[in-house]
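quick one, 224 residues, struct below
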Amino acid sequence: ASTVEAALLEFTGECDMERMLYGVKKFRDEWYKGDAMYGDGVDFHMDYYNSFVIHPMLTDVLVVMKKHGIEGTDFLDTQLKRHTRYAEILERFISPEGSFPVVGRSICYRFGAFHALGQAALMHILPERVKPAQVRCALTSVIRRQLKSPANFDKNGWLRVGFTGEQIEISESYINTGSVYLCAFGLVPLGLPETDEFWSGPYTEWTNVKAWNGEKVQADHAIK
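---
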């Protein structure tokens, strides 16, 4: 509801303010669990909803609120720091082979699990030690790994329900052919111009490649 109302505010100049602020206040005041992780409501779930929905949409709503001078946008600075930290965590989830943990619900959204990482690249809020080019290379490895099986698509070229291929058992009752296209959120860096460092930088190893090759990798620390 907050996202819908923020969109209405952006495109029409009007919105239901109470509905827009409801979600923002809930995540700000009640549902933060620590180290850039929010609960999906009161409870914490070990899944990718912090990336599918929570960080990207919370950040977007706050950006719109700031643009329109809505009270409460002082939280944006804190949220951007949390978004940056969560992007750092996601980058470290990508293995040297381009795989990532198959955990939690809606895993059929495939590389949409990296929405928050891609948006951090798009908004230029990646952590200092995570270079845009290494995110490009890491995400490319995931997409290639996940889509290499021809079983990902039916005879008409539509994505099938699955994680990599056709795996209906891994889905939930709300998953369907349309919803699996949420994977497209993993492609949000396409909004960057070709001159951006994300595209123009040379091949760069991501954290797990360097770590597993015995190269220099900085220690990871939780956000305060």
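The two ends are 29 Å apart (CA to CA).
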